[in-house]
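haha ok so turns out i had the wrong file open the whole time. this is the CORRECT one, sorry everyone. sequence first:
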Amino acid sequence: MAKPTDSDLTNRFLYHAGPASRNVKHGRVSDLCLALAKELRDIMPEGRNAALALTYLEEVRMRANAALACDSPAGE
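then structure:
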């Protein structure tokens, strides 16, 4: 499996529009995950475990954004 490009990682890890009140936090989560994804991509050899690491990082991003969306107090 080929290493993902910056464009692939950007699509996977950058935030797609949502509620204005949480955009900054969602964006921060995405920025942190994207930065880590690029670092990991650059240091890991290609293979199944590298692919899984990036897949699980996508899940981390999703769960963090779900926590912001679902578990934040109303109006925050």
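Helices lie at 6-13, 23-43, 48-71.
again sry for the mixup
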